[in-house]
């Protein structure tokens, strides 16, 4: 049985799962699908195109699947997806996609803290933590298990690699490769996210291989293209280092420097 406050405005066309809680003055539009066991806080607005998984918690004043802040958007049908067990804190603003990709996607078991903004056509992986007032521009790709510190910003079309950490107050205007820590304005390479890797049970052997790969990139004195060739030759079969190689090779904006 669902618990919908009498002051909430819920479209009869919206598709709601079982055991849904909707707080006072919340608004849910027509083209919305919400899974089971979700909680929608007071004054939250769920706009057309929202596709919300199970056990999602959306706190007060959040704006979910609102129109993109893109002048090319022509009110075409696009979507915003939120995975299971994700928490969206108060006054977050998550915008749906444009015709460029048709969607914005937030993964499962994520935490988006208060006042975060995720713009159109972004992809956010699973187990991602985005702290207070972080601003994510359009078309950004954030891989799994990333942490972004409060008051940081990520440039449009930027990429943040898996298991990396962006320090609070940073400006990530270049791509952040996997497993590393970055901080500053602009963001710079600050070493490996060793604490995070150990907490996630990465072996000492794997951590040492990742550390050596980044030593070649950032401390060998080689230009980046030559360093990439050396890392590829040395770690042909190492799956975690291959993730770094693949990330750098597909980077459009270039990766952060030391």
Q: In words, what does this structure look like?
A:
There is one protein chain. With 258 residues, the chain is α/β, with parallel strands linked by helices. The chain has 2 domains: 137 residues, 3 Solenoid (UDP N-Acetylglucosamine Acyltransferase, domain 1), CATH 2.160.10; 53 residues, Up-down Bundle (Udp N-acetylglucosamine O-acyltransferase, Domain 2), CATH 1.20.1180.10. Helices cover 17% and strands 27% of the residues. It contains 4 helices and 28 strands. The strands form 3 sheets. Strands 1-4-7-10-13-16-19-22-25-27-28 form an 11-stranded mixed sheet, covered by helices on one side. A hairpin with a 4-residue loop joins strand 27 and strand 28. Helix 2 runs antiparallel to helix 3. The protein is elongated. The chain starts with a strand and ends in an 8-residue tail after the last helix.
Task: Assign the structural class, choosing from mainly alpha, mainly beta, alpha/beta, alpha+beta, or little secondary structure.
Answer: alpha/beta
Name of the CATH first level of the largest domain: Mainly Beta
- Secondary structure: number of strands: 28
**Largest sheet features:** 11 strands, mixed
Q: Which outline best applies?
A: elongated
Fill in the CATH topology of the largest domain: UDP N-Acetylglucosamine Acyltransferase, domain 1
Strand content: 25-35%
Low-pLDDT ranges: none
First-residue to last-residue Cα separation: 55 Å
Order of strands across the main sheet: 1-4-7-10-13-16-19-22-25-27-28
Q: What is the share of helical residues?
A: 10-25%
What's the CATH H-level homologous superfamily of the largest domain?
A: Hexapeptide repeat proteins
Based on CA atoms alone, the radius of gyration comes out at: 20 Å
CATH architecture of the largest domain: 3 Solenoid
Question: Would you tell me the overall average pLDDT?
Answer: 97
Count of alpha and pi helical runs: 4
Total number of domains? 2
